[in-house]
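REQUEST FORM: STRUCTURE PREDICTION
Request ID: SP-0412
Submitted by: Lab K.M.
Chain count: 1
Length (residues): 345
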Amino acid sequence: MATAKADLDWKNLGFGWRKTDANIRFTFGDGKWDEGVLVSDDVIPLHIGATCLHYGQECFEGLKAYETKSGDVVVFRIEENARRLIRSCERIMMEPVPEEMFIHAVFRVVDANRRFVPPYGTGGTLYIRPLLLGTTGAMALRPSVDYLFVVFVTPVGPYFKTGFTPVDLIVEDDLDRAAPRGVGHVKVGGNYAAGMKASTRAKAKGYADALYLDPRAKRFIDEAGPANFFAITRDRQYVTPDSESILPSITNNSLITLAEDMGLRPVRRPVDVEEIFEFAEAGCCGTAAVITPVKSITYRDRVVVYCQDGRPGPVCTDLYQRLTAIQCGDAPDPYGWVRRVPECG
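STATUS: Completed
RESULT:
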């Protein structure tokens, strides 16, 4: 049965917070998870000594729900988000959220907020944020024994107001986002806090974001702000950095699969910053923006421009169209990436 949509300006949403009908919360205590409950309250009560507040025991995920032309609501590669959250939990000593519980939680909260899923064709999506917090009140440095798992949603438009339009980046070489063998490869809030200064500084100079170099040699490209970086070589190879201090992007992994099927010979390897002057195209990728084409990169006193006419390159455009067509149900899904959200009752 069709659900009446919320009264929103669907084509001008922007990427920001809007209250929805419900979020879902699961509590871990006495060695087990409860069954979870849907609530309308947007406020979480926390002990003032909670380990998430003092010792960074916090991790999260980000994914989206899409309405298809047929009216179904679907999610993209939800299993990969569940598995990545487990890896984050293991790295910072948190109680893992079982994969099936993660999927069921997402389905329940999306189903409870169907009227906030932007209509097909508007360019909007329902952004889904699973969040895990260590909640034990303790002053000593030790893992929490109590946890709160929350999944909330909000309808969003494009991450960048200009949508699929090339942006300018600047290489950041005097601040590090994450350290090798640290937590750069998992999705924890501290990584984003560490990047705020460089990102804010880049935006103040007129750039979309900062492009980080590896913290050890300050020579190889790591990530671009909150997104993975990739480039297309002049001989049509899809190149993306191989680094132990960047987050494995589900979007990037999907693009690698598509690139291989397009004959682009994808490769994950260390990418020397000097190579930016030889690439044919470049882009950033992640859940929020899918692909953000790169117009130019400034490195110290040099600038390389990829989009001379201001339009995205042909390979970035092809990859973007292929991936979003699968996500929105406009193209066949031979990879089994899309799952329909069931009615949970």
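NOTES: Residues 3 and 62 are 24 Å apart (CA to CA).
Reviewed by: T.R.
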